[in-house]
Design brief:
By secondary structure, the protein is α+β, with helices and mostly antiparallel strands. The protein is 16% helix and 39% strand. The strands form 3 sheets. It has a 6-stranded antiparallel β-sheet, with no helix packed on it. A 6-stranded antiparallel β-sheet has the order 12-11-10-7-14-15, with no helix packed on it. Strands 1-2-3-17-4 form a 5-stranded mixed β-sheet, with helices on both faces. β1, α1 and β2 form a beta-alpha-beta unit.
């Protein structure tokens, strides 16, 4: 028997009650599988909440986009779980440097830098300690995982990455100079450093998924291979297939 724990976004309370009426909730510690009800944002929250607990997470969409989720149905849950396919993901680790010290956070989708005021940001970008862009004038920039490549990264015209690609996407956000630079594909082992130029005049915030640090001076980003999370998907609708389909959608 598979032990389940259900967790839900506030607006998924009815679905949560319906599923708990059909299946015992053994709690987060005893569960073999965590079932998350909500949208992509709630899936990210659930991933963060279960780091280090070795619990695969099966999401059902009750949000808007639901790219990281399965279709919601209260029926045949155990059958779906038994046939589910696994997607293993690693987060990025962000180290955000400010005048007050260093703040560390993890991101399963992306680490993004964003201007805080009407003035464009100026960023210096280093990869593996080697300067690659001396001065990027932009609204911001981001580093995306394969799992997050169809989210903010895609909206910023970054590339879609297969889930098993050992790559990261480095993508500018509304680049002004150099205007033609569209970003880069990096090895998942790459170490990316953003240095904020004219930080007092052009303040920048750094965001790891939904965790924000304002007025950063520099930001280091690297894949955290020491953290592994598993998401479950209905057979034939795994994350590989979703990412491939997204590349052929209009």
């Amino acid at each position: 028997m598979t032990g389940l724990h259900f967790t839900a976004a506030p607006d998924a309370a009815d679905a949560l009650a319906q599923l708990r009426a059909r299946h015992a909730d053994v709690g987060p510690d005893a569960a073999d599988i965590v079932v998350a009800l909500g949208g992509d944002g709630f899936m990210l929250q659930t991933l963060h909440g279960f780091i280090g607990k070795n619990k695969p997470i099966y999401g059902m969409n009750l949000g808007s986009v639901g790219f990281l989720m399965n279709e919601y149905s209260a029926d045949d849950l155990i059958t779906r779980l038994k046939a589910a396919e696994r997607a293993v993901v690693h987060p990025l680790r962000m180290e955000a440097h400010t005048d007050n010290g260093v703040t560390t956070a993890l991101a399963f989708n992306e680490v993004s830098l964003l201007r805080e005021t009407r003035q464009a940001a100026k960023l210096r970008i280093l990869v593996d300690e080697k300067p690659r862009i001396a001065e990027l004038i932009c609204d911001g920039a981001l580093v995306s995982t394969p799992a997050g490549s169809t989210a903010y990264n895609l909206s910023a015209h970054g590339p879609i990455l297969p889930i098993d690609a050992e790559l990261l996407a480095l993508t500018p956000i509304s680049a002004f100079r150099p205007r033609r630079w569209r970003g880069a594909l990096l090895s998942h082992r790459a170490r990316v450093r953003f240095e904020i130029l004219e930080a007092q005049k052009r303040p920048v915030s750094a965001v790891a998924d939904d965790f924000e640090v304002r007025d950063v001076r520099a930001v280091d980003v690297v894949e955290e291979r020491g953290v592994t999370m598993t998401m479950l998907y209905d057979a034939g609708h795994n994350l590989d297939e979703r990412i491939l389909t997204e590349q052929f959608s209009d």
